[in-house]
Amino acid sequence: MGKLDLIQTLSGHEGRVWNVCWHPQGNTLASCGEDKTIRLWFKEGSKWVNKDILTEGHQRTIREVAWSSCGNYLASASFDATTGIWDKKGGQFDCISSLEGHENEVKSVAWSKSGQLLSTCSRDKSVWIWEVIEDEYECAAVLNAHTQDVKKVVWHPHLDILASASYDNTAKLFKEDVADNDWICIATLSSHTSTVWSLAFDHSGTRLATCSDDCTVKIWQEYLSNNSEGIVTPDNNPVWKCVCTLSGYHTRAIYDISWCHKTHLLATACGDDAIRIFKEAEDSEKHTPTFILLATCANAHTQDVNAVAWNPSVPGLLASASDDGEVKLWQYEDN
Amino acid sequence: MGFDDLENINPKLYRKCNDREVTTEEESDDIYDEFDAREIFDLIRGINDPEHPLTLEELNVVKQNDVCVDNKNNEIKVLFTPTIPHCSMATLIGLSIRVQLLRSLPPRFKICVQIYPGTHASEEAINKQLADKERVAAALENNDLIACINDCIVVD
């Protein structure tokens, strides 16, 4: 068992805060929301302070922000159908590009590990892959595999494999077919009974956690071709199998999930105002893993929790964003 | 909208309920009174139908009995009944109810607006849409749609 201690409440946004994202070095937090601004929070002494407010990038709600893995760029996905690219070349962040193409709300944006690929998704049901060549962004693929709006995209931690979550109740995985440079869907993860809101890879990239409107979290495991368990892999593509379902813990839609690559802790953001922390049990079996609830912070916020993100360098440091207009920082401690 | 375009040309009309009688307890600031179903019903019964110059109460789309308030868990559930099972306005009506409640009630409430079971052909799809707060938020940033909703909500 463990507990979550509140470190600091970061107030400033007006209205709903949709998302938070840590700089890869862990020293800056970006947040965004309904007020169409991106706020950057830096640590000064023992306190986090709001140093920058990025405005004038978008006409409507900013749904998500994402740092590139080099830490030099920030991308923002907006309901105004554009994706903003922010760069700090001139000493402060400026919006250097606005990527157009989606027909309506862009809901998520993510950079690949190499920084050479960017992905976006939208209510228009499509997932786009953009190639990044010296500050130029070129559309490399438009993937129409989902049948409903796509809520979230995330890249594999090491490989150029993309995962997406959708209102069509599925998650999908995509990769480039080296034979003809075409991006193809290599797996469809069906088991949730309602919208899949978000997903997160573990540190190795062989497991994926999905969270849904059906109030469950599912853990999926990759099985490569010729695996010793005898799981059939059509076309030699890896198969992703649901190996664990966490049900009975959340009482409303789960909007986000974050899997810490250092501590292996899983955090969830729920519409019941709570943040929950899970971890794989020590005596867990690889192919039938057991995850245990370590902590529940009920009333973590006064309204829905929309996002959670583990700090990439400080173990146990978690950021959350809520409809109540606040961003909060938490420290997880084992009891 | 022209007469020929109406989906339901001759809807059945229902009598409006009387105004709530305010008790002395309710007027006393010393007594804490919780939200009740009648209060929620009063917030939504005057919403105009998008098609007819009538209120949702007069068309029996909303009823006090289909409002459920759970103060302890901060939950409010409203079921509404479209006048015909293929009503294309059902989503707009649901959104109008939701917006009216979001604007009137304290933010601690979790508001659920759904179609009365078995009264609409696309019940499941519409319920899912109305429950998706991201879609609702995006819809409310659409000026044309918000103008439509405001027309429904405005009390003459």
UniProtKB/TrEMBL annotation, chain B:
Keyword Nucleotide-binding attached: no
Annotated GO CC locations: cytosolic [4Fe-4S] assembly targeting complex
GO biological process: chromosome segregation; protein maturation
Domain MIP18 family-like: residue ranges: 39-109
Pfam families with a match to the protein in the record: FeS_assembly_P
Keyword Cytoplasm recorded: no
Annotated family: Belongs to the MIP18 family.
Official protein name in the record: MIP18 family-like domain-containing protein
Organism per entry: Gryllus longicercus
